[in-house]
Amino acid sequence: MSELKPRWDIFCTVVDNYGDIGVTWRLARQLVAEHALPVRLWVDDLRAFERICPEIDINVAQQFQQGVEVRHWPSEWLHTEAADVVIAAFACQLPSDYMDAMAEREKPPLWMNLDYLSAEDWVIGCHGLPSVKYKTVQKFFFFPGFQPGTGGLLRERGLLERRRQFQLDAQAQRTFLQGLGIDRAEGAQLISLFAYENAGLASWLDVLAADSQPTHLLVPEGRVLGDVAQWLDVETLSVGAIHVRHSLTVQVLPFVRQDQYDHLLWCCDFNAVRGEDSFVRAQWAGRPMLWHIYQQDEDIHLDKLDAFLALYTKGLSPAAAEAMNGLWRAWSAGQPIGEHWLASRKHWPELQGNAEKWCLEQGLQADLAAALVQFYLNWI
User: Fold this and answer.
1) CATH 3.40.50.2000, applies to 159-362
2) Catalytic activity, per the record (predicted)?
3) What is the 3-state secondary structure (H, E, C) of 316-353?
4) Which residues are catalytic?
5) Which of 108, 117, 166, 187 fits as disulfide partner to 137, beta carbons 3.0 to 4.6 Å?
């Protein structure tokens, strides 16, 4: 592999809320750092990219960041030589000139559609199959997933051991939290909240505020802030704001870079996340979690939610599984979740053990970057 040095191009159209750029940026960095591959990451929205990588210069069309060549994807495409491996992230449409450049190569490139993450059974049957063809260039489906026979999940080398060591080091956690201006009260449970707008939030905050155990709720900048502000009965919430309502402390955090967000998830006792990138990172945290899946037409997202829950709750007792299913489904439907939260708390030690067990089981599979590289090696 090191002798061939195939060039990789990854194309990302930033469609919604940083998940697509989050996934492709992690993948590009890992291919460079762990597989010594030359990688170009084509991004059509550098401003969104800047939120998770502040070093990005949004006014520069070509730059290197952490070993990755970052290229702005222009509205009017200029002729560029096609790479040996081409990844269209999340079914984005490649520029027609670039597709012609792929077809003009003496040896056509490996062209893959890196699809959305799903736990549905059909993914295993479709993973790795040929898709459409453009002239001489064949495209293949590549599905991330949770089961053998899929492409696995993004996981950097040594990630789980670094996470374990961090969670064993109380001082390291305090130092990290203090760096974000977080002063965790003794005995308070720490919860992170990263979600889309959700009408069911108020019932959860009501329960947390009335609880005998104090809660420190950390809310990174994002779409759910409006609902939090409404519950607090304040006009707006800005970074650094701290509000206390009985047992509940709410603190607004800045949008942080990816490695900082990982550490935030590792510090928390419970993580509410959304989309795809933060969903996977919360699983690597090994802590109980709640997923706000992105809503799709005709509620097909609920099929994805149920498929994941079937796998994730498989090892739980019937009562604990019922509590988790109720919590997740109500949350993604925008329904009140206060009672579901109380039901889940009755099974807390079991949910904690299940989260860590699930994390370690997923860690036994090949990671997504390694699976992509192996797919290329098998293809050539």
Assistant:
1) yes
2) dTDP-beta-L-rhamnose + L-arginyl-[protein] = N(omega)-(alpha-L-rhamnosyl)-L-arginyl-[protein] + dTDP + H(+)
3) CCHHHHHHHHHHHHHHHCCCCCHHHHHHHHCCHHHHHH
4) 20, 276
5) 108
